[in-house]
């Protein structure tokens, strides 16, 4: 594998280096990805308001809208084009496990209450709104503290996977 710093072939990484890279990419995804996605979203909304758009469509203002996904996927792609860590494409597993734990916890702890059975939209529609949208009540928005980082891990790993696929194609084209 050719490294950008030296232009030479890189030696295989050890398991310890890949594990360290796994946690490094997880931190990039959660901290950097959430900050970047919020900044991109605010910049686009600001631009639209400067252009005279009175009502910004909901997908642009929603927390898990297109700017969340696209900016974090782009971050994962750009970081892993440079770093080329195979472990970066696997950080989605932590995010998926966290979301699964949230669903199991919510189901086990809440669905047995009489209140939840009387919800007009149904229990799962209510849970989706509480966990995955910004249309949640004040105390229930705490679920976003878990779902936002979890989905950031998933989005970042998509970008990292694309980066690895792209670098493989480039290497194949250069070698032939």
Short description:
This protein has 176 residues and is mainly α. The protein is 70% helix and 0% strand.
Shape: flat
Helix/strand/pairing class, anyone? Answer: mainly alpha
Query: How large is the count of helical segments?
Result: 7
Beta-strand content: under 5%
Overall domain count: 1
Radius of gyration: 20 Å
Instruction: Compute the separation of the termini in Å.
Output: 15 Å
Helix proportion range: 55-70%
Which regions are unreliable across 5 or more consecutive residues at pLDDT < 50?
Answer: 5-11
H and E order: HHHHHHH
Average residue-wise pLDDT: 79
> Main sheet, how many strands, which sense, barrel?
none
Report the count of strand segments.
Answer: 0
Describe this structure in words.
The chain has helices spanning 15-50, 58-61, 66-83, 92-110, 114-117, 123-132, 144-175. Residues 5-11 have low confidence and may be disordered. The chain is mainly alpha-helical and 176 residues long. It has seven helices and no strands. The chain has one domain.
